[in-house]
Amino acid sequence: MVIFSKASRFGVLTLVSILAVHKVNAHGQIKGVLANGIYNDGPNIYWDADPVNEQTATRKMYQAAGPSYVLPQDFSDNSKMACEGAAGAPKIINVSAGSDLRVDWVGATSELDGKPGTGNVPAGQNPWVHAMGTMASYIAKCTNDDCTTYDASQGSWVKLAMFGIDKSETISSGLRETMKNKPEEYYPTPGTSGLWGMARFIEASSSWTVTIPKGLANGQYIIRQEVGAIHNPWNAQDDTSGTQLYIGCIQINVINGGNTKLPGGTRAGSLYATNGAFARYNVYEDNGMTFVDPGPVLWPSSYAKREEWRMKKVKRCMKH
Fold first, then answer.
1. How far is 279 from 269, CA to CA, in rounded Å?
2. Disulfide: which of 113, 117, 119, 191 matches 205 by Cβ 3.0-4.6 Å?
């Protein structure tokens, strides 16, 4: 039998309370990343003393009891929009130019655990829980060539890839059925084609792949991985409504590169307008018909490629 003192019981109850509050308000974070054959775990947002926090190259997206995403009213905030205000992570991972960086995400709740259309998510790990929205990847150079101390709010962000909605495809029948049991049913509605980047993300086991541009100059960079959820459309009377941005930042050291330098980019607080079409998009009224990829243009270089070109090769509905 395990016996707790009053103090320890209080501590356990406090921790449980924090986790419960967090799971009500949060939707997930980066579980880990795979680069050059080496897996690096993401941070533990629940327990600062976890040894994994000393070995991660992923900045802590948010504290367990804090906001887990950025809402439109903060789209102009360079710090929140860069890496959700996160300080530097202690480690940096090597990634060869021209190779892939796989980013694994995990949901905060078990709503979709084991459900059709969620891919091959490892046992004990929750799938992402929303299926409507965008997937985007940005990159910025750590100008001091030390990403562990670099202030990401000063970054000049270059868009590597964006997957909004592919109107030539549609969601798998398994995931569509799964989403019927959530508060937000999937749109576009049955009979209308349209596959959101976030739906493909769930079907690919809640993982996304970022291709590091071939020929990119060696050095330290931050990859800004963004998940843009649109299930709770903007409402002028509700300051918790609007597009939700989940932003994770991974510190990388590019090796085996070339001479290509990043072009001039965009400050994080200028990527999307606070009152723009993306911030206020209503998927239930539009049914995905007029959605346009938001933000700056893709890097106009043969080295950059859209993630959907790669992800079309992923077999959807791998599990069911």
1. 13
2. 119
